[in-house]
Amino acid sequence: MVESKIDRVQALGDMKFSDVMAAAFEEDIAKILTEICTLLVSDDIKVEKKNLKKPKWSVWKVAYYYYVDPFSKSKKDLKFEYRHNGKRVQVRSGALSAMASCNEEEGDKFDLEFGLRLAAKRLVVKKIASEVESKAK
């Protein structure tokens, strides 16, 4: 004979109603989790994995970016290295690095020149911020 929740509640008369309801809720959650695990493990459900190919990065190349130093008001050139994978552009100079990426979901199309300028500007911002930190100490 299958025992119903009402029979169990009547059998547990000494317990508070809230405790009984909490125990029943936990039991229901456990059953649901068991069902979910069974479904995930079953052979009936096939999970297709997309063939995700990792984009290959290009070799690091050297480039220069000119900017105005906010402290000396003079033009400075920043020598940096960059690489791309058709979606992202990474730049580095010494210990600093920056990145720019296109959002294909929003309709962006990869443009190396634009990404390179954007990543270089982000690198300049990091360079200036590190100079400010070093001068503040």
Write the layout of secondary structure elements.
Layout (H helix, E strand, L loop, with lengths): L4 H7 L5 H25 L19 E8 L6 E10 L3 E6 L2 E6 L10 H25 L1
Antiparallel strand pairs: 1-2, 2-3, 3-4
List keywords for this structure.
single chain, elongated, 3 helices, 4 strands, alpha+beta, 137 residues, 4-stranded antiparallel beta sheet
Structure write-up:
Helices cover 42% and strands 22% of the residues. With 137 residues, it is of the alpha+beta class. The model has no long low-confidence stretch (mean pLDDT 78).
Supply Rg.
30 Å
Strand content: 15-25%
Mean pLDDT: 78
Report, as a whole number of angstroms, the end-to-end distance. Answer: 78 Å
Arrangement of strands in the largest sheet: 1-2-3-4
Helix amount: 40-55%
| Low-confidence spans | none
The number of distinct β-strands equals: 4
N-to-C SSE string, H for helix and E for strand: HHEEEEH
How does the major sheet shape up? 4 strands, antiparallel
Secondary structure tally, helices: 3
Q: Looking at the structure, what is the overall shape?
A: elongated
Backbone structural class: alpha+beta
Task: Describe the structure in brief.
The chain has 137 residues and is α+β, with helices and mostly antiparallel strands. It contains 3 helices and 4 strands, in the order H-H-E-E-E-E-H. The mean pLDDT is 78.
